[in-house]
Amino acid sequence: MDLLLNKDFMQEFLSPIWLSIKIATISGIVVILLGTLIGRIFARKSFKRKAIVETLLMLPMVLPPTVVGFFLIVVFGRNSIAGQAIEWLFHQPIIFTWWAAVIASIVVAFPLMYQSAKSGFQGVDLNIEEAARVDGANEWRIFLFISIPLASKSLISGAILSFARALGEFGATLMFAGNIPGETQTIPTAIYIAIDSGNMQLAWMWVISIVILSFLMLLVVRVKQND
Questions:
Q1: What is the model's pTM?
Q2: Which of 56, 119, 135, 184 is the most buried (most CB within 10 A)?
Q3: Per the database record, which ranges form the ABC transmembrane type-1 domain (predicted)?
C-alpha cells in the first residue's frame, strides 16, 4: 500500500501502461482502416498472384518478432531511403521513438484485422449488394451502409484482437523502438526489464495489468461472437 502512495513509484508503474494504450490505440485505428479496406478488396477481387500478395500480408503473423524488427530497421533505418526521408522531414530518425513502436504494432497487428475483415465480407450476401447497385447506390455507399454493417461482427472481433496484439507487442518493438523509460517503454518491455533487474513486485503489477486488459478484450470478442 505504501508503494501505491509513492508518487515516483506510481509514475514508473503507470508510464508504460499509458504509453502502451496510446500506441495500441493509434496503431489500432490505422490497422482497422487498412485492414477493412484491403479485406474488402481481397474478398471481392481476383487477380494474378493474389495468393502471393496475401501471403506477404499475413507473413508477420508467423515470422519471429525479431525478424520483423530486423526488416523494420532495414526499411526505416538511417541508411534507407524511407529513413532518410523521414529524418529530412522531421529532423530526427524514427528509430528509437514511440512512433517506431506504432509502426511495429501496425505491422504485427494488421494480419489479424485483415483476416477477420476478409472473412466477414466474404460472408455478406452478394445479392444484397447487387440489389443496392440496381437501386442506384454507388460502391462507397454499398461499402459503408451495407457491407460494413453486415460484416460488423467480424470487424469488431478483428479490431479488438488487433488492439490486443498491438498492446502485447514485444520483440519487434524492442528492436525497432528500444526500451527508453517514459519514451518507448511499453508494458511488455517494462516487464522484461523488471524481471531482468529482479524487481518482481513491479513486474507482477504490470503482468496483472496486461492480463486484465487482454482478458476483458477477449471476453468482448467472445460475447460478440455468441450474439
A1: 0.89
A2: 184
A3: 17-221
